[in-house]
Design goal:
This protein is α+β, with helices and mostly antiparallel strands and 342 residues long. The chain has helices spanning 53-70, 99-102, 231-236, 238-242, 279-283, 302-311; strands at residues 74-79, 82-88, 94-98, 108-112, 118-127, 132-137, 159-164, 176-186, 189-192, 204-206, 212-219, 226-230, 260-265, 268-274, 290-294, 297-298, 317-324, 327-334. The chain folds into 3 domains: 38-137, Trypsin-like serine proteases (Thrombin, subunit H, Beta Barrel); 151-229, Thrombin, subunit H; 260-334, PDZ domain (Pdz3 Domain, Roll). A 6-stranded antiparallel beta barrel has the order 1-2-3-6-5-4. It has a 6-stranded antiparallel beta barrel with strand order 7-8-9-12-11-10. Strand 15 and strand 16 form a beta hairpin. The longest helix has 18 residues, at 53-70.
Amino acid sequence: MENIQTPGPAAPAKTKPKEAEPPALPTPAVPKPGPARRQDLPAAFSKEVPTSIADLRAIEQQVKKLVRQVSPAVVAVEVGYASGSGVVISADGLVLSAGHVCGRPRRDVLFTFPDGRTARGKTMGVDRDADTGLMRITDPGPWPHVAVGDLEEARLGDWVLALGHPGGFDLKRSLVVRLGRIIRAAPGIVQTDCTINSGDSGGPLFDMHGRVLAIHSAISSSLAENFHVPITEFFDTWNTLAAGGSANALASQPRAYVGASAADDPAGCRLSAVEKNSPAFNAGLQPGDLVLKVEGRDIPVSATFRRWIAEAQPGETLNLEIKRGDKLLSLQVKLQTPPDGK
């Protein structure tokens, strides 16, 4: 009889060792304002208005110097369907932005620097009432960064620089810089005559020392009268922001999902894709539709459309005015939670 050997017990399968989770980063401390002395600025900045060509040249030279200094730290941000701007304030990648750009904690973020480099990150904390938001770059640094300022040192009429990415990041155009002045300061708000637009939200307002005084928050009916969240609001809500929390229930709700992508077009905001069986699809939206208005508000660029969606809630119905060829249509879109439930 043939001797047949039976196999012994199977050797235990080798299991892949569990990867250790990265250590939690320490809670960042409240940033301290960088030093600055008003007397160090050219005399032109102490005048109510420039009075000579020499004053104009002094202002021009200081602005050029500051733009070179602060631009590397100003980023475009993409969070879900929304886009905006932000500014890096630490070498390890803390980013200030607007609360409505962040949306809620623990969302994935793509940061784009003015030279086209990108980095990944997460939203941290949000205070939607103050419109303050904090993000962090999770890719290894160090990162270019700027100092924060002290709003108590600012005065009405002070010159300021507004930087951002209106309409989204564009490497051909890169960063957009606007010079203006503070025209109003009140609790929780700074108003300037700097021209800002959709996509600038979350970007920085600098003083003439290159320190962040405020973050772009809202556009008024006039492009030259716009509102910014003072840096002091970030200091006041820092515990919530740094702890990765939300100061109200709105920010913790799921984001809204429309299922349509938009792109800038010479005519405005045009839908580039509509997902099958999505809210946009069910409402009758089609690729190529030009979005004119959402809830009666003009949509000049795609970033404005994405912001409306980012600020809406699942279950909410938005009225969209659409141009399709020569036809004007009014469509009702009922937003849903995303298919992934996040």
